[in-house]
Every structure is written in structure tokens, then in C-alpha cells.
Design a protein that fits this description.
The structure holds two protein chains of two kinds. The relative contact order of chain A is 0.15. Helices cover 20% and strands 34% of the residues of chain A. The termini of chain A are far apart. By secondary structure, chain A is α+β, with helices and mostly antiparallel strands. Chain A has helices at 15-20, 40-49, 69-76, 124-134, 159-163, 211-222, 232-242, 276-285; strands at residues 24-28, 31-36, 52-55, 60-65, 89-95, 101-111, 114-119, 141-144, 149-155, 179-184, 187-192, 201-207, 228-230, 289-296, 307-310, 313-324, 329-337, 346-351, 354-361. In chain B, the strands form two sheets. Chain B has a six-stranded antiparallel β-sheet. The longest helix of chain B is centred in the C-terminal third of the chain and has 11 residues, at 117-127. Chain B is globular and about 35 Å long. The chains are: A alpha+beta, B alpha+beta.
């Protein structure tokens, strides 16, 4: 395996640990990240059945504080920030004036005038520039804390069992989409009950300098439970089985949150926010296309950009696709014209000059086990 | 990583077990590691005529699609049907139960352009 990296690739504090664990490292969003260790299918099933630990330190964190923080964020983001309480978290979009998506992110509320955002690795610099630009007329200070912050995700039915002995606060009392500050293996950090897999689990925000010992402690603690380190390959198959969007594939600057089936985090009733006017207009006019889940009916793997046909005519392209390790069938997401978006509608995916039959299914493809 | 000494290899990481005018073909341990978990293998039907260096099939893993190339010209006389239900044999036993096709070779000098295990080891070290 070539050890030379292009100068521009960034690394997390855990690179040598990943190598020791047998990871294959590949460039992702400008970072050198583990794509797999034991294998995508093994890792995927480990998260669904036991517990897995991810290094997601490439993700970005942005801190927002000040008298006008709530008012600013209510204007900046699509979801209703005023509904938050101390320790709560919301999934939300951040839109451009035209209604397209800057990023999808999680907002965490420390207090009414103090929040932090967790944003996509590929968008961190862009998001921070966008936030600063829009914050000028508000009494807020914004800080990109990504460089100092590492992040781990512990996901699976046995996640709580593994984390509790190392965390000084009761996880049993930590509801879904809430977070607490405390000590993990004696390291000060934030633990949230969130994730990108559809299983119960946690995301841990820790200082860069201390994440290594926490990662290793979790691996040791989790051994009797069958814990495995999990790479980005399985992270993608897990989120796809849940139908979760990935920025750059299902959503981007040109796409509409409403067409992407994310209308549930777009709260028009709260008042004007960046992008609300064109989106409201689109809602009133009706959606021309919708993002749907496709399940193949015979063998084959739908992949990004493969053409999708209805009645023999091309109607769209796969935005994300994979072989589902849980279902043993090909699955994918795709925008189709609204008339073809009904559950059960029959479509075809073009795979290497063959038309493979597929049907529109309700999401998620496999049941979610988050602790709501 | 395993490289079997009695086989011949191609630049594309296929292996060949050549006996007289019959060749059994598969992909190497290096290849299966690069591919990851194999989920589908598309192979030609018996009787198909293959042309050296043209693709004869496709190996799909969860994350990638890879063409497999005919190392020799000839007619397909056998296809490993086990790979339809157990594509993971390519990962677990690439030189044995993960074999893909058997060819009745028509090349007059079949070993031309194929590597022995020493040359293949060098190639893997360069690429690894």
C-alpha cells in the first residue's frame, strides 16, 4: 500500500490506530480515512447486530454564541430553532436564497444564546464562510472549532452497554436527539444520542488531543460485545438502508429540500428564513419530482448516475445506490417525476446495457431501531 | 497475501491454470482484496468465444464494479455455477472454489504476455 499522500490530504489523530487495526485508508473529502477494516459487509452487520465504532473526526463543528444567536439561527436554518431546549438537537438544512441546499447539519443547543453545529466534512469551510457572511447584522460570534474537535460514533444495539461504564452520566436518561456534557474515560466531551445508521447509538465530541485514548478504551470495553471498528464504506451502506440523504448526492446547491423528501425539517410557519420564499412557492405549485427509494427485483447493484426508466423512457438517475447487506438485494435513491413516485410503481434501472426491474418502496428500506 | 507458484498471471490480476489446451481462470488474492466483499459475478455462457484481452465478465463488490479480461483466446467450456449463489467464494478461496471459467485455448503460444509467479509478485509489490 503506497504510504505517500498528496500534500493536501488531512489526517485524523487516529490514522496509526486505523492502520494497526488493518484499515484500508482512502481519500475522502480531502481527508485520509478508513474505508474498511474487516470488510464492508461484516462491519455493516456488526453495527446492525452488535456495536461498531467509527472515527468521524473529519466532520466539522461550528460554535455560535451571542444575544442574537437564536434569532440568527432561526433566519439561517430551515427548522424551528425556537422549539429547542437546553441539551436538545435538531436535524436541519441551511439553504441558499434560491432554496437550494448549502448543507444538512445537526444543531445542538447549550442555551438560548449558545449553540454548536455539526456539519459535513466536505462543506465545513464553505458553511463557515456562509455563516459568517450572514451573521454580520446580528450580535453573535461564530467560531470554526473543527480543528480542535474530534468525533467518534458508537452505533448498534449494544452501544449503551459499551459506553456506560466509561461515561459519568446516565445514558438511560439520555433521550434520542439530546446531548450531555460529561467525561468519557476521564476526557471532557459531549455525548449525543444521534447517528447516521438507524441503530441506537451515540456521537462523541472530544478534544483532538485525547480522542485516541477514548477510541482505544471503547474498543477494549466493547470486546466482549463483539465491537468492531467501522469504515466509511459501511457508513454509506448503513445510511442508505435508512434512506438518509448524503450531501453531494441527494442534496446540493441545485436541489430542493421539498423534492428531497426533507419537507419535515422545513418549517414555513416559523416565519421568513433564507430560501423560504422560493420553497413556499414551490410547495404551493406542487412538486414536479420526488426522491424515492428503489429496490431491485432481480440481481444487480444500482449505482450513482445509472439511468432510471419508466415505461421504457429515461426519467432520472440513481443518486446513491448499493448492495444492501441486510436485504441481500440492490437498493438506491432516485429523483423521479411525481407521477412515478407512488409506492409500488415499477421502474427499470439500466445496468450495463440491461434493464433491471425495480420498484418504488417506502423508506427506510430496513426498520429503524433508534430509541425514540 | 497469497500468490500461487504454479500459476500464470496477467497485469489485470487474473490467474491462469494452464494444462495442455485447457485453461482455468480466476482473479488473484490481490484482486479480491482490492475488490472487497464480492456480491455478484457475471460470467459468459458455455460455448462463448473469447478474444484475448477483451472483457469476459464483471465482478461486483459492494462498492465497485470491475471488468475481468480474457487472458487467452478460446471457447468457454465450463463456468463456475457456484458463484451465482456464493459469490463470496472469490474472496474466501480465489485460487480454488472461486475459479470462474475454463477455456479451450486457441492461441498458438498461450503463455505469451502472461507472467510467472515471480514477475507477478514484483507487480503486486509495485502496486501494493
Amino acid at each position: 500500500m503506497s504510504e505517500e499522500l498528496p500534500q493536501t490530504l488531512r489526517t485524523t489523530p487516529l490514522t496509526d490506530v486505523h492502520r494497526k487495526l488493518g484499515a484500508r485508508l482512502v481519500p475522502f473529502a480531502g481527508w485520509n480515512m478508513p474505508i474498511q477494516y474487516a470488510g464492508v459487509v461484516t462491519e455493516h452487520l456488526c453495527v446492525r447486530e452488535k456495536v461498531g465504532l467509527f472515527d468521524v473526526s473529519h466532520m466539522g463543528e461550528i460554535d455560535i454564541k451571542g444575544k442574537d444567536a437564536q434569532r440568527f439561527l432561526q433566519y439561517l436554518l430551515s427548522n424551528d430553532i425556537e422549539k429547542m431546549t437546553d441539551g436538545s438537537i435538531l436535524y436541519t438544512l441551511m439553504c441558499y436564497e434560491g432554496g437550494g441546499v448549502v448543507d444538512d447539519l445537526l444543531i445542538h443547543r447549550f442555551s438560548e444564546d449558545h449553540y454548536f453545529l455539526c456539519v459535513n466534512a466536505s462543506n465545513t469551510d464553505k458553511d463557515y464562510a456562509w455563516i459568517k457572511k450572514n451573521a454580520t447584522s446580528f450580535d453573535v460570534t461564530t467560531k470554526n472549532t473543527s480543528a480542535a474537535t474530534a468525533q467518534l460514533a458508537l452505533q448498534g444495539p449494544r452501544a449503551e452497554e459499551v459506553l456506560q461504564p466509561l461515561f459519568d452520566i446516565s445514558l438511560h436518561d439520555l433521550p434520542y436527539y439530546h446531548f450531555k456534557r460529561g467525561k468519557v474515560h476521564n476526557v471532557e466531551g459531549i455525548v449525543s444520542r444521534t447517528g447516521y445508521t438507524g441503530e441506537d447509538g451515540f456521537e462523541l465530541y472530544l478534544p483532538q488531543g485525547d480522542v485516541r485514548q477514548v477510541f482505544c478504551a471503547l474498543i477494549r470495553q466493547g470486546e466482549p460485545c463483539g465491537i468492531q471498528p467501522i469504515g466509511l464504506g459501511a457508513r454509506d451502506t448503513l445510511r442508505l438502508e435508512m434512506g438518509y440523504a448524503l450531501y453531494g448526492q441527494e442534496i446540493d446547491a441545485e436541489s430542493s429540500p421539498l423534492e428531497a423528501d426533507l419537507g419535515w425539517v422545513v418549517k414555513f410557519k416559523k416565519g421568513k428564513f433564507i430560501g423560504s420564499e422560493p420553497l413556499l412557492k414551490q410547495k404551493e405549485e406542487g412538486l414536479l419530482r420526488k426522491l424515492v427509494g428503489l429496490r431491485l427485483l432481480t440481481r444487480g447493484v444500482p449505482r450513482e448516475h445509472y439511468r432510471v426508466l419508466a415505461d421504457g423512457k429515461p426519467v432520472g438517475e440513481v443518486t446513491s445506490g448499493t448492495f444492501s447487506p441486510s436485504l441481500n438485494i440492490g437498493i438506491g435513491l432516485c429523483y423521479v417525476p411525481s407521477e412515478h413516485s407512488i409506492t409500488g410503481a415499477r421502474l427499470e434501472v439500466e445496468i450495463r446495457n440491461q434493464l433491471i426491474p425495480a420498484e418504488v418502496v417506502k423508506l427506510p428500506f430496513v426498520p429503524s431501531h433508534v430509541k425514540k | 497475501m497469497e500468490i500461487q507458484k504454479d500459476l500464470l498471471y496477467t497485469m489485470e490480476h487474473e490467474w491462469i491454470r494452464l494444462k495442455g489446451n485447457r485453461a482455468v481462470v480466476g482473479v488473484s488474492d490481490f484482486a479480491q482484496k482490492q475488490l472487497g466483499d464480492v456480491v455478484f459475478v457475471e460470467l459468459p455462457t458455455e460455448g462463448t468465444e473469447l478474444v484475448k484481452e477483451n472483457t469476459f465478465g464483471v465482478v461486483e463488490s459492494v462498492k465497485t464494479v470491475s471488468d475481468v479480461y480474457a487472458p487467452l483466446s478460446g471457447r468457454v467450456v465450463a463456468v463456475n455455477k457456484d458463484l451465482e449463489t456464493q459469490p463470496d467464494l472469490v474472496n474466501s478461496d480465489p485460487y480454488g472454489k472461486g475459479w470462474m471459467i475454463e477455456i479451450e485455448v486457441t492461441d498458438s503460444s498461450p503463455e505469451d504476455g502472461l507472467m510467472n509467479s515471480e514477475k507477478y509478485t514484483e507487480l503486486c509489490q509495485q502496486q501494493g
